[in-house]
Design goal:
two-stranded antiparallel ribbon; 11 helices; mainly alpha; about 65% helix
């Protein structure tokens, strides 16, 4: 069964794969003020740099220089505010990664470009955010949902590579699970501390080893 096909805009169309529903809907985001949108960007920077989970909403408002009312206009609680910031970041990176799916290239080349862009989510500072969000209810489910989407996209492309004879028949679900989990694995603080390269560079390098190994088996 074909799982992906060229689309008229030059990108590969993924079938049966849906991105996680944003915590902040497009309609809700359009309803935010310019200042609130700026605050979401500021909060992302703060969350990546030093964490915010231990602060109260009042302390967060003081740190970014806004009123409590302005923050509560974005989300009804601190946990939901922080999750919204993270979810917005992951969706932005995910959209950039999907833009790399070029139907004029081979499935594996598209997968390589997709994974390299998706791994932007695990830059070195992500370790700070990951540790900080352990305290936030719902954070694990949020990360799991985005990783499940990454896995599904990866398996789609691997299935297409098998279908087109680019790689031999393999357990694409298992390979996709490994590839999709590399970034999150190397962003863990205990792993990031011993790795020579950054989490992204390490995940990119190991992804390439796996992809080259699949090609070598033809």
């Amino acid at each position: 069964m074909t799982l992906a096909a060229p689309e008229t805009d030059g990108r590969i169309q993924l079938r049966g794969v849906r991105a996680p529903k944003p915590l902040l809907s497009r309609e809700a985001e359009r309803g935010l003020s310019a200042r609130q949108l700026e605050l979401l960007d500021e909060l992302e920077t703060q969350l990546l740099r030093e964490g915010l989970a231990e602060l109260t909403m009042a302390e967060i408002a003081g740190r970014v220089g806004c009123s409590l009312r302005t923050l509560y206009g974005i989300a009804p609680s601190k946990d939901e505010l922080l999750l919204t910031v993270v979810d917005r970041r992951l969706h932005r990176i995910g959209r950039a990664a999907i833009e790399k799916l070029d139907a004029s290239k081979s499935p594996l080349d598209s997968l390589r470009a997709y994974l390299r862009t998706a791994n932007e989510a695990v830059q070195p500072e992500t370790a700070v955010m990951s540790v900080d969000l352990v305290r936030v209810a719902g954070a694990s489910r949020l990360f799991d949902a985005h990783e499940a989407y990454l896995t599904a996209v990866t398996q789609n492309l691997l299935d297409l590579a098998v279908e087109q004879g680019q790689i031999p028949t393999v357990d694409t679900a298992a390979v996709a699970h490994v590839l999709a989990g590399l970034g999150r694995e190397f962003a863990r603080s205990e792993v990031a501390d011993v790795a020579v390269a950054s989490p992204k560079d390490t995940a990119d390098a190991i992804s390439e080893l796996i992809l080259q190994g699949l090609l070598a088996q033809r």
